[in-house]
Amino acid sequence: MAGTLTPRDRGVLMAVNAGASSLSFVGSGFIVLCYVLFKELRKFSFKLVFYLALSDMLCSFFSMIGDPSKGFFCYAQGYSTHFFCVASFLWTTTIAFTLHRTVVKHKTDVEDMEAMFHLYVWGTSLVMTVIRSFGNNHGHFGSWCWTQTGTGKAVHFITFYIPLWGAILYNGFTYFQVIRMLNNATRMAVGMSDRSYQLDARADMKAMNRWGYYPLILIGSWAFGTINRIHDFVEPGHKIFWLSVLDVGTASLMGLFNSIAYGLNSSVRRAIYERSELFLPERLRRWFPNHLKHRNQQQDSELVSLKVEDQQ
Questions:
Q1: Contact yes or no for 123/94 (Cβ under 8 A)
Q2: Fewer CB within a 10 Å sphere, N or C end of the chain?
Q3: How many domains does the chain fold into?
Q4: Is the pTM of this model over 0.90?
Q5: 295 with 266: CB under 8 angstroms?
């Protein structure tokens, strides 16, 4: 189905956007709330996850409240979502950088780079958002406010999708190096008689194998959006409804995907269970998985407990 979107089509897209953005808002808001409530999670590594979740939460919030049919709300939605969505995928690069510098380069100075991370993420997001304003003439496209001129569309692609795919490539390359190094460490451990070293290496490898899928979150969230932007640039005025639905739905779910993959790790689940022991009756706590009740903290090798923190 191609052509100009009908009012009914736009209504469907707005409903998809509102529903998916609401899920992302709840998911990322939950991670923000956990960081605020649980002091044991306030380590540098999870602080980066907190900033990621905060960016996702604000991106989802402005995506929900924006009304492309009204001028002021159109601008508010367009620029605010652009700023915080750029910030979101840039925070994923800082997490990848931290893992690489800690695991591959064995550096312990990542906490000293927090100010640089903020300057890099918020500064780059601001610059990209300001540049996007050049040549823009906003109008509604489905459920979002998009640029309507050819120049504006090109600027939007340059200031969002090119940095996005740059971040995807960087994350993928970085995680590949980290996993390759831990693979080598695991092979070395197999030939050693030190059983504890082998267990540590396998635990690290298990966590890193999961982290290797993180770049797929950005790919899954923005692949349809990239295709839709290219199609809209090549054939303006010919909208593909099903592609627009996939574009809006997957992009709006990015915050939910990030909150599950980055934030809802074993350390967060354990903190929730420990609090539940204080407030929930025994008959309700029985429904919690057994592995949360007897989790050995030395067995976990997640973002909350990077090796750099163990070395300090």
A1: no
A2: C
A3: 1
A4: no
A5: yes
CA angle 24, 223, 99 (to 5 degrees): 70
Does 29 reside within a domain? Answer: yes
d(CA 82, CA 62): 10
Is residue 2 included in any domain, yes or no? Answer: no
pLDDT in tens, 161-193: 999 999 999 999 998 888 888 777 666 666 655
Query: What residue ranges in the chain does DSSP mark as E strands?
Result: 2-3, 138-141, 144-147, 239-240
Instruction: Give the total residue count for the chain.
Output: 312
Q: Is the pLDDT of residue 139 over 60?
A: no
Q: What are the counts of helices (DSSP H) followed by strands (DSSP E) for the chain?
A: 14, 4
The answer on pLDDT for 25 being more than 60 is: yes
CATH number at 285 reads 1.20.1070.10
Could you tell me the residue range of the domain that residue 249 belongs to?
7-310
In degrees rounded to 5, what are phi and psi of residue 16? -60, -45
Residue 1 lies in a domain: no
Tell me whether residue 306 is in a domain: yes
The pLDDT of 198-223, averaged and rounded, is: 71
Q: 240 - beta bridge partners?
A: 2
Would you tell me how many other CB atoms lie within 10 Å of the CB of residue 237?
8
